[in-house]
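Narrative of activities, Objective 1.

The group set out to show that a structural description can be obtained from nothing but a protein's sequence at a throughput compatible with the screening campaign. Below is one input-output pair from the validation batch, recorded exactly as produced.
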Amino acid sequence: MKFEPVTIKDIAKALNLSKSTVSRALRDSYEISSETKEIVVAYAKSVNYRPNPIALNLKERRSRTIGIVVSEIANSFFSQIINGIESIAKENDYNVIITQTLESYEREIEVIHNLAQSVDGLLISLSSETKDIAHIQLLHDRGMPIVFFDRIIESIEAHKVISDDYKGAYSATTHLLENGYKKIAFIGNTPNLSIIKHRKEGYLAALQKAGIKPKESYIKYCEHGGMYYEEVEEIINQLFKLKDRPDAVFSCSDKITTNCFRYFNANNIILPDDIALIGFSNLDLTGFMKPSLSIIKQQAFEIGVKAAELLIKQIESKRPVYEYSKIVLDPELFIRDSTQKRKNTQ
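Output recorded for this entry:
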């Protein structure tokens, strides 16, 4: 036998009332007498009546669903952000749909297009390949609530939640300099991303303050954000072929950092004796690696919380939103064994 949930029509028929009367009674409308409300509510409870959320949402022209766009769900940084988003979504009775671009511009267009058909708002972190933002601008112009997080678009006026990337990079580079490392390589995602622009600025500012002229040969970019080990391997091989090879690496993302560590381990390169390593990472295991890994850790969960709060507030606003917030959260520097003071500073 097929399960058939109890409807307002069933309750109305059983109590010999109109559907509109039952509906108003269940909504505690002032138009219905207390006596009728008690009868309707008691009967609804006895037959385990539950409102149909799909029907309610259709009536309100809302899905109570948020779309999330990240580069890779398996990335510890983004998975922690998603946890933060879901915690707020649950509190506010919203569902979430999570999609990943895998750093592909074409895939980003596809997932955003699909999400826009069925969600009330979008939380977006750009892919490494994204340079043309027309697909997002179009949705924004049509009034779709959008909040950008981490990898943002400066030119679109919208809510944004980010980490202080300049500060994180400046702190990491300064730490290396203070520990005797002067030839510091920079490995980032593609330079079009907002996070890489700011992290490079922090890196360069720390070198400049120390009186060190940056070398272009030390600055490298991963087209796919280090998602593939081979692209990180190729970049480190290039760095090691330099006549004046680096004595330290500052990496700009979770995947790049862990793949650098993997490369050094696979090639019997001792950290920090042969080369030091520090990078952005939210991977919990970095403190248990051998040697333990110095990192810049971002407030990923809090980024998710703030982004979701801003989006839901915008979705539920009774008036169009024209004033937007930009929330900047401080990262934290964890100093561990991979960047111990250099033994030979000649």
